[in-house]
Amino acid sequence: MRTITVGHLEHCQLCDHKGLQTILPLGHQPVVQEYLTDKTLHEPETTYPLNLCRCASCGLLQLDYIVDPKIVFPTNYPYRTGLTNMLIRNFRALADILEKKYKLTPQDLIVDIGSNDGTLLHGFKDKGMRVLGIEPTDAARVANKNGVTTLQAYLNKDSAKKAVKKYGLARIVTATNVFAHINDVPALMANIKTLLAPDGIFVSESQYIMDIFKKLEFDTIYHEHLRFYGLKPLAKLFIEHGCSLVDAERISAAGGSIRVFAQKGKHPMSAQAKKLIAAEEAAGIYDGAMLRDWAKRILQAKNDLVALVLRCKKSGARVVGVGSPARANTLLGYTKINDQLLDYACEKSGSPKIGMFTPGTHIPVVDEKHLLSDQPDYALLLSWHIGEELMKILRKQGYRGKFIMPLPRPRIISK
Ligand SMILES: [Zn+2]
């Protein structure tokens, strides 16, 4: 595997095979975290091609256009892990699982790559272990303020060496939702190997292609996610870099993810991981015809959702969005559900997106308290992957209108 350059790709990101097949063209879209301000709302916006493609040789699903990481992850990147309850719960559970599985002790160092505001490391710190975050954005400052030691830097040769020199080798290196984001995988693997102790474990969590496939979660496709992994190509990738995928499990985070455990050197794969690979093959995620059928179902869901929202609007009803996660911007951009159709999208109090506008679709983002005082007729669940949980909370808080669940089957919920 080689370093992938910015711009249009003609070769597979994993095996270098030339000729990628387009499975799902999602149009030209802006970068999902590029929220607009009162001022930038009146400026031109840059959009980039967003196409999900398949390698005919190794089967890896990937984008065929790479946006410059400095544009995709600016230092003022508005995402904060600590604001998402489900992620907090997932990360606490991860600390418990790893402590038990690898008999971690307080001397052990845990390093998290792309550690954001330090939410994941908090779980380990509470258990008395040594922790170190590596995070390029300003979220590193929040982490340090909250007592999670964090190096504000991109993970590279220098920062990895600096970390080892100052803190020693890591028993565990974690990378949640970054493994599919980085274009220089050979360097990433080399740096992880630098950080890891000889018996160390690398734990990565990524959105899982099986969940994306089964639940039509095409909204997880955006420029941050360069590749959509099944275990089969991941296992190959680790071997290529002198490591072994030793175990894997499915978890519910981010609408369905895969947690993968790897080690330096040659080690056997667990029966559970082998079973998951067999299930991937049986489901057809490496089969071009099955994927094209999947893309057709997505197009149908899109048409149904647009028709449903238009019906609501024609009846004179008001429709708003609930949540404004990054992924919603793919859903909104692809369906063209914009500020003409949604009055606003509401976010949890404290979200840095409040007061801004969604990229491309220009929907104003407001505090979710506004939903309760405003009581619009329909609330479109933009964070539909946690839709059930959200509906319960909003009902409890007193929202009386109807909900629209956008995917996998667009429908109105009035309960
Ligand atoms: Zn390939």
Task: Describe what this molecule looks like in 3D.
With 415 residues, this protein is of the alpha/beta class. It has three domains: 7-64, no CATH class; 81-266, Rossmann fold; 289-413, 3-Layer(aba) Sandwich (Rossmann fold). 33% of the residues lie in helices and 23% in strands. Strand 9 (170-176), helix 6 (185-195) and strand 10 form a beta-alpha-beta unit. It is globular, with a radius of gyration of 21 Å. It starts with 6 loop residues before the first strand and ends with a strand. Bound molecules: zinc ion. Zinc ion (ZN) binds at residues 12, 14-15, 17, 55, 57-58, 60.
Q: What's the topology here?
A:
Layout: E1 7-8, E2 20-29, E3 48-55, E4 61-63, E5 65-66, H1 69-72, H2 85-101, E6 109-113, H3 119-126, E7 130-134, H4 139-145, E8 150-151, H5 157-167, E9 170-176, H6 185-195, E10 196-207, H7 209-214, E11 227-228, H8 231-240, E12 243-251, E13 257-264, H9 271-283, H10 288-314, E14 319-322, H11 328-335, E15 345-347, E16 365-367, H12 369-374, E17 378-381, H13 387-397, E18 402-405, E19 411-413
Parallel strand pairs: 6-7, 6-9, 7-8, 9-10, 14-15, 14-17, 15-16, 17-18
Antiparallel strand pairs: 1-5, 2-3, 3-4, 4-11, 10-13, 12-13, 18-19
Helix pairs in contact: 2-3, 5-6
The multimeric state of the shown protein is single chain
Largest sheet: 7 strands, mixed
Number of helical runs?
A: 13
Distance, first to last CA: 50 Å
Would you identify the CATH H-level superfamily of the largest domain?
A: Vaccinia Virus protein VP39
Bound molecules: zinc ion
Q: Beta-strand percentage?
A: 15-25%
